[in-house]
Amino acid sequence: MVIHDATLDRTTNQTGDYRALATADLAGIDAGSWFGAGFAGELELLDPARELLVSSFNPLLLAEFHRTAPRWPVACLYENHQFAAVWRSVAGLLGATAIHPGVTGLERDRVRRFRAAGYDVNVWTVNSVEQAQEFPAAWR
Predict the structure, then answer these.
(1) What confidence tens digit (pLDDT) does each residue in 42-72 have?
(2) Which residues of the chain are under the pLDDT cut of 70?
(3) C-alpha distances in angstroms, 103 versus 17, 82, 108, 109?
(4) pTM greater than the 0.85 cutoff
(5) Are residues 68 and 134 part of one domain?
(6) Residue of 121, 118, 95 lying closest to 108 (CA atoms)
(7) What pLDDT is attached to residue 119?
């Protein structure tokens, strides 16, 4: 199960720990209504043929995930103040395939450095088409 939080409480219609759930339990969980009516019933079982990229701000979590599920690629989520001298070392040690920088304060040269080092770049949190259009194709 891939979930953003440590419990079901904030993002679903259920409460408590999710680690004891069986696949059959997932049918009764609504993970979308809290966000808006158009997202009601949002919950999918992962088909292994799908693309999956696991990202986190926590490099220890990513290392453990990658150790236990090495077939799935990982990406490092960073807030821009975290880049200093560690991004390349952390991403390399984790075997990351991508860097996920925050949109606030992101600079073109930084994106180019990520790409030059061989990483895909996926910027978070871009919340509008207008904001996405601020990034020229050369940044992507």
Answers:
(1) 766 666 767 889 999 899 999 999 999 998 9
(2) 1, 43-47, 49, 81-84, 136-140
(3) 32, 13, 11, 14
(4) no
(5) yes
(6) 121
(7) 95
- What is residue 132's three-state secondary structure? helix
Which amino acid belongs to residue 5? Answer: D
Are 115 and 72 part of one and the same domain? yes
C-alpha torsion angle, residues 38, 1, 21, 47 (rounded to 10): 80
What tokens does 108 get? 């073109």
Burial zone of 119 (CB within 10 Å; 0-12 exposed, 13-18 middle, 19+ buried): buried
Check whether residue 7 and residue 72 sit in a common domain: no
121 Cβ neighbours under 8 A, 6+ residues apart: 98, 99, 100, 101, 111, 114, 115, 139, 140
What is the signed CA dihedral for 93, 94, 99, 104, rounded to 10 degrees? -90
- Sheet of 74-78, strands arranged across: 54-56, 74-78, 98-101, 120-121
